[in-house]
Amino acid sequence: MHSSCHLVLEDGDIISARSLPVGILPAEPGAGSRFSRLSLLNTDALLSLPPDGLSLDELETSLLKQALARSNGNQTRAAKLVGLTRDQFRYRWKKFRETNRPRLVAVGGSQH
């Protein structure tokens, strides 16, 4: 499985379709999707689920990174950009940092 992370920066408060990676927007109607007969796409959706799905953890991390970048590292302003309190933002950011921290392995020498 291939995963990727994209950084999207916009000048305003709205992410436009031109800034999104290819494949994240819905395909043309009737484009051969196995769900093309169903009208599952909410026209008010901010983001369409890619055909292969996505990782919510990766999406959350991407949004946290974007908010921090847009707020020049200010966690209070970053939190407001993603609709969280400062404490909620800090909790989620700490969770991300802990899961991406390099694992240290203690290596003991044998003494004879």
Q: Main attributes?
A:
112 residues; Arc Repressor Mutant, subunit A; mainly alpha; 0% strand
Short description:
The chain has a single domain (17-99), classed as Arc Repressor Mutant, subunit A.
SSE arrangement:
Blueprint: H1 56-70, H2 75-81, H3 86-99
Helix pairs in contact: 1-2, 2-3
Describe the structure.
This protein is an all-alpha fold and 112 residues long. It has one domain (17-99): Orthogonal Bundle (Arc Repressor Mutant, subunit A), CATH 1.10.10. It is built from three helices and no strands. The protein has helices at 56-70, 75-81, 86-99. The longest helix has 15 residues, at 56-70.
Order of helices and strands: HHH
Q: What is the helix tally?
A: 3
Number of domains: 1
CATH fold-level topology: Arc Repressor Mutant, subunit A
Structural class: mainly alpha
Strand content: under 5%
